[in-house]
Amino acid sequence: MSAKFSTIVAALCLAAVPVFAQNQKPTDPQIAHIAYTAGVLDIAAANQALKMSSNKDVIAFAQQMIKDHEAVNKQALALVKKLNVTPEDNETSKTLTSQATAKRDALAKLKGAEFDKAYIQNEIAYHKAVNSALETQLIPSAQNAELKALLETGLKLFKGHEQHAEHTASLVK
């Protein structure tokens, strides 16, 4: 593993931990925005992988991320519309967005196997961070039962994404 690759992977993994800790519990509109933002950002990362990778395992993983995150985000939008709730931008969703932009910029400088490895390692770290936030903050803080149920369903799916990313990492040489 090259020193350049190791440095970039380390930086991406450190940056993958979002700022979910807040002095007070997030509200349901904030939770909805955080969850939706996390999905949109992973879709953007997957689209980048589709453009930059020629590895069939990475491409299949990215296609699955787009399909699953679009489906969950569609459900989330339907729920907020049904509940007449306006998702509320907040520091956590802003931090997620700025970190994801920086990660995509760093990944854009890589090519071939270096990109593939860094992308998949970032996906592992990202899903671990999001899953942890869902378990420890977002689900426990959600007041609406339907929002909580959607988050719990998402957590099951995203734990599968984490495992899928780990499996894909073992295939990427």
Quickly describe the structure.
This protein is mainly α and about 170 residues long.
Structure description:
With 173 residues, the protein is mostly helical. The protein has a single domain, classed as Ferritin (Up-down Bundle), CATH 1.20.1260.10. Helices cover 82% and strands 0% of the residues. It is built from 6 helices and no strands. The radius of gyration is 16 Å and the shape is elongated.
Can you give keywords for this protein?
173 residues; mainly alpha; Ferritin; 6 helices; 82% helix; disordered N terminus
Number of domains: 1
Shape: elongated
Secondary structure class reads mainly alpha
Please indicate the percent range of residues in DSSP E strands (runs of 2 or more).
Answer: under 5%
Q: What are the segments in which pLDDT stays under 50 over at least 5 consecutive residues?
A: 1-22
Q: What is the terminal-to-terminal distance?
A: 10 Å
- The CATH homologous superfamily corresponds to Ferritin, core subunit, four-helix bundle
Write the layout of secondary structure elements.
Layout: H1 3-15, H2 28-52, H3 56-83, H4 91-108, H5 112-141, H6 145-171
Helix pairs in contact: 1-5, 2-3, 2-4, 2-5, 3-6, 5-6
